[in-house]
Amino acid sequence: MILAVTIEGDLHALAIGAALARRSHQEYFILECDRMWDRYCLRCMDDGDATIRNLSDGQTIRLENVHVVWWRRVRADQKVEAEFQADQLRLINNDCRGGLAGALASHITGRWVSRPDATDRAADKLFQLSAARAAGFRTPRTLLGQAREDVIAFRAGLEGRMIVKPVVGTGGALLFTQFLDDPATVPAESFAVAPAIYQEYVPGTRHIRLNCFGDQSWAAVIESCRLDWRPDLNVPVEPWPVPAGVHRQVREVLDHLGLRMGIVDLKERPDGELVWLEVNPQGQFLFLDGLTGMNLADRFAEFLLLEAGALPLE
């Protein structure tokens, strides 16, 4: 059994379910973690008996039967449609999140894609950069800070331009990477409210989106003059054969981070050298299917089946 833990309406989870169905795999369940308050019923006994029952259709999942947990999208608050006070809402959100995480962690003996502790730790961008350097990747010079004088001094030590991006970001609107050429023009208060990541700009127009699922990697190259390619995908995008050495390096980074999968952003410098930017433990990848026909939905479904032991290893 494969259990996808995600938010209501997650297109990735739905598309992978369809891909698994095409392979005649029926034991795939989507658990909408933002609807725990009204759609599911947890039951965990101290003798090891643990179930999750879907209140809408009565279907019951025994956690001992779960072979793989796809820990997909788990940070959302509950979609509460009733009137509660603020303290009541905090209780509902905290206890639904904590109860679900505790039940899965204590009663599932199968594999995780990827374990919650590793997923949380890997979101640390400085930790990622350290692991990437240890694997032999070039990484941009980086400062995490929130004092204007530190940012000004860091900028003065760079030969090229400087960019700024959030440390974690928000669950709402996307915060795109931006140039910050003259930090002295920005009020000190703007830096002080929260730390941010400042990095040297990596020149080039070839952005590599690499998708590592277990022991295999597939990638696409996005040709864009933009600093952050995400706002405009009306640009050339095509499959990029992943060199064996690059896959080994990426797999080394993910192993160090404790991740079974990762969506990696690399950038190719004009001289051809690849620079590691970051990895998202549960990044978006299906948009590449529509742009390139790479068929990542079926490749990821096969990966989950391998993790579940439902396919023989080649």
Note the topology:
Elements: E1 2-6, H1 11-22, E2 28-32, H2 36-39, E3 40-44, E4 50-54, E5 60-62, E6 68-71, H3 86-107, E7 111-113, H4 116-122, H5 125-134, E8 142-145, H6 148-156, E9 162-165, E10 178-179, H7 188-192, E11 196-200, E12 206-213, E13 216-223, E14 237-239, H8 244-257, E15 261-268, E16 274-280, H9 287-292, H10 296-307
Helix pairs in contact: 1-10, 5-8
Q: If you compute it from the alpha carbons, what radius of gyration comes out, rounded to the nearest whole angstrom?
A: 21 Å
Supply the number of helical segments: 10
The helix/strand order is EHEHEEEEHEHHEHEEHEEEEHEEHH
Helix content: 25-40%
Beta-strand percentage range: 25-35%
CATH T-level fold name of one domain: Rossmann fold
Q: Supply the CATH architecture of one domain.
A: 3-Layer(aba) Sandwich
Uncertain stretches: none
CATH class of one domain: Alpha Beta
Q: What order do the strands of the largest sheet run in, or round the barrel if closed?
A: 14-13-12-15-16
Approximate shape: globular
| N- to C-terminal distance | 21 Å
Number of strands: 16
- What is the mean predicted local confidence, pLDDT? 94
Task: Name the structural class.
Answer: alpha+beta
Report the oligomer. Answer: single chain
- Biggest sheet character: 5 strands, antiparallel
